[in-house]
Design a protein that fits this description.
mainly alpha
């Protein structure tokens, strides 16, 4: 526990120092140092860190030793199987798997922060405290898909349909759930208005009640995931799903609060009217995050889908705060966000360590 708290405190102090000192290339320096620390934790973690790490280590050997990797019967997507086969041919140690995947996943996330966040150090803090980093220590396949989705964001902003779709399809070869991110493209072409918000609300309520029927219909076409309906993925009203929804909903409300405040200072009639194209896109993403996390309360398999949208909170929150011109209010909100997100993180680490199994932390040689 001291390690996790120590890293958070270190990153916070480093971030405030670089921010206050106005150091040249300060954001690059901060992101490089924090990336390096988290990369070491991720690349050289033991088999006991992360709920699924042990299974992924076993898969690594299984796929590595299989000749017909493309035609073999498996529930695992083909892109991930091919990656395992290639890496195993270089070195049979699963440390190579965690080293390479951690480099790609964390590298993509940090590059995404560098390119899109107005307050990079706060984005890194949220990446940890909203527990996305801990997920990457466990769900390797979906973390790769998530990283590719973040890369596709560039083309989503540009309206480059084919490059965006191509990357999402590539992501689906590592985790099929990433195909749900395609929803954002048509939605992002619309301005967020009260009618659109009402549409999100209405559709999410309907899907909440008919979720099991919809999933059964989908799984008739994808029978290899049929077992999820009888597994722990489909237990109703799980505490984790409720918390995910409350966090997403709170972030959404925070966004509306900031927009209303900015509107009052700019003296415009409608807070949604001050949204830039990028802000409008991010608001759509956060609305979808809230919608999917609400639906997931009735079936936690949908939590996997919500992750592709909720990860954008790490840039959505800092970019909203940057809109506030009053320095004192801005600092107050930053500290409030940090305290609340840290409390959320620590409570789960202490009282629900089994959700991700990242505490107590071990390096791979400690497991022997």
């Amino acid at each position: 526990m001291l390690l996790h708290i120590g890293i958070i405190v270190l990153f916070f102090l480093l971030g405030t120092f670089i921010n206050d000192s106005k150091l040249k290339n300060g954001n690059k320096i901060y992101l490089f140092i924090t990336f390096f620390v988290l990369y070491i934790m991720s690349a050289f973690r033991s088999i006991n860190i992360g709920n699924d790490t042990r299974d992924y280590f076993l898969m690594y050997e299984k796929f590595g030793r299989t000749d017909n990797i493309l035609s073999m019967p498996s529930d695992v997507e083909v892109g991930y199987r091919v990656l395992n086969k290639f890496l195993y041919s270089l070195n049979p140690s699963p440390v190579l798997l965690t080293s390479i995947t951690s480099l790609f996943v964390l590298g993509s996330i940090f590059f995404f922060i560098y390119k899109n966040s107005e307050i990079p150090w706060l984005s890194v803090m949220l990446f940890i405290n909203l527990r996305t980093f801990y997920f990457t220590l466990s769900g390797i396949r979906q973390s790769i898909a998530l990283a590719i989705i973040l890369i596709s964001y560039k083309y989503l902003k540009q309206g480059n349909f084919w490059k965006f779709v191509s990357l999402v399809i590539l992501a689906s070869t590592f985790h099929i759930s990433s195909l749900f991110f395609l929803i954002i493209y048509p939605m992002s072409r619309m301005r967020v208005k009260q009618k659109i918000i009402a549409l999100y609300f209405g559709v999410s309520v309907v899907f909440f009640f008919i979720l099991e029927r919809i999933l059964q219909l989908i799984l008739n076409f994808i029978p290899k995931y049929q077992s999820y309906l009888s597994s722990s993925y489909f237990e109703s009203v799980k505490l984790a799903s409720i918390l995910d929804f409350l966090v997403s909903f709170s972030i959404l409300l925070f966004g509306f609060f900031v927009l209303k405040y900015v509107k009052s200072k700019r003296k415009v009639n409608n807070e949604l009217g001050i949204l830039s194209v990028n802000s409008n896109l991010l608001l759509h993403i956060m609305l979808l995050s809230t919608a999917f996390n609400f639906i997931a309360i009735n079936g936690s398999i949908i939590k996997r889908v919500g992750l592709y949208f909720s990860v954008f909170a790490i840039i959505y929150i800092p970019n909203l705060i940057k809109k506030i011109k009053d320095k004192n209010i801005k600092i107050l909100i930053i500290y409030l966000i940090l305290v609340l997100s840290l409390a959320y993180n620590l409570v789960i680490l202490i009282y629900r360590p089994e959700w991700q199994r990242v505490y107590p932390y071990e390096l791979f040689w400690d497991a022997f």
